[in-house]
Structures are given as C-alpha cells and as structure tokens.
C-alpha cells in the first residue's frame, strides 16, 4: 500500500514487525555474544519472546473481535485479554527470582517489539512526508540551453 497516507498500518504490518524484531534481536545478540554472559542472553531472549507472544495474542484477539458483532465481544475474549497480564507477571517473577536473570536484559528484550514498531512508523511518516514535497525546480542552465 504505497499510496496510503496512513502511517504504515496495513494488513502485513504486524507480520513485518515479527520478522524485523527477530532479525534485529539476532543481530544485537550476535554483537553482544562475547561481551555478556549466558544469563543476560537468556533474559534478553525471554523478554523478546514475551513481547512477541503478547503482540500475537493482541493480534488474535483483535482479529476475533473484528469477526464478531461489536456490541458483544464475548466473555472469554475479555477474560483472555485481561488475564494475560497477571500470567506475564508470574512468568517474569518465576524467571527473574530463581534463575537470577537480569531484569534489565528482560526489559531490553521486551522493548524490541516496541522499538521496531516505532521505527517502522517513523520511517513511514518520513517517507510520506518527503514524497509530498514538490520536486526541485530545474536550474537556469537548462533554460538557457547550457550556455
């Protein structure tokens, strides 16, 4: 959807976020491989996987809500949407406390999805903004015949 003036929200946007997040996370982990320990890498991967899983659950819930009548979304959809956050908190507690994973590493991994989304939207907005500008006027040399 190149001609679309919306800031990058087409049907394939979320799929591209998954791929870009996985690629960027892999590059970051390869760069940090010799600099940090195994606990940091595991924490980063846990945060990244957690953020991707939450994005996928939001995508599935939104798709399901689009199929149903908007006046009554269904009790189980609301329960899943609200119940996933205590589950995430329990998972994080279970990972950080006994496994001694660094919380900063988990937060860095968790922030990758949000960073990719923001960068994609900013890039799309800049692209749309630059495509709306007028082309540069021809120089006087072309009008004079090059003389």
Describe this structure in words.
With 147 residues, this protein is an all-alpha fold. It has one domain. The chain has five helices and no strands. The longest helix has 30 residues. The chain is flat and about 45 Å long. The two termini are 44 Å apart. The N terminus is likely disordered.
Rg is 22 Å
Largest sheet: none
Helix-strand pattern, N to C? HHHHH
Number of strands: 0
- Structural class by sheet pairing and helices: mainly alpha
Quick one: overall form? flat
Give the low-confidence spans.
1-5
Average pLDDT rating:
80
Strand percentage: under 5%
Attribute tags:
mainly alpha; 74% helix; disordered N terminus; 147 residues
Write the layout of secondary structure elements.
Elements: H1 13-32, H2 38-67, H3 75-99, H4 103-132, H5 140-143
Helix pairs in contact: 1-2, 1-4, 2-3, 2-4
Task: Kindly summarize this structure in a few lines.
By secondary structure, this protein is mainly α. The protein has helices spanning 13-32, 38-67, 75-99, 103-132, 140-143. Helix 1 (13-32) packs across helix 4 (103-132), helix 2 runs antiparallel to helix 3 and helix 2 (38-67) packs across helix 4 (103-132).
């Amino acid at each position: 959807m190149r001609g679309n003036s919306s800031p990058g929200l087409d049907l394939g946007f979320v799929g591209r976020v998954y791929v870009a997040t996985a690629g960027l996370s892999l590059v970051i982990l390869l760069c940090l491989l010799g600099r940090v320990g195994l606990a940091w890498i595991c924490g980063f991967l846990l945060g990244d996987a957690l953020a991707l899983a939450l994005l996928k659950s939001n995508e599935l819930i939104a798709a399901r809500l689009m199929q149903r009548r908007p006046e009554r979304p269904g009790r189980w959809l609301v329960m899943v949407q609200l119940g996933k956050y205590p589950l995430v908190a329990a998972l994080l507690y279970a990972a950080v406390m006994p496994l001694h994973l660094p919380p900063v590493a988990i937060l860095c991994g968790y922030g990758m999805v949000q960073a990719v989304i923001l960068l994609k939207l900013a890039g799309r907005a800049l692209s749309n903004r630059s495509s709306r500008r007028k082309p540069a006027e021809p120089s006087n040399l072309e009008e004079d015949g090059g003389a």
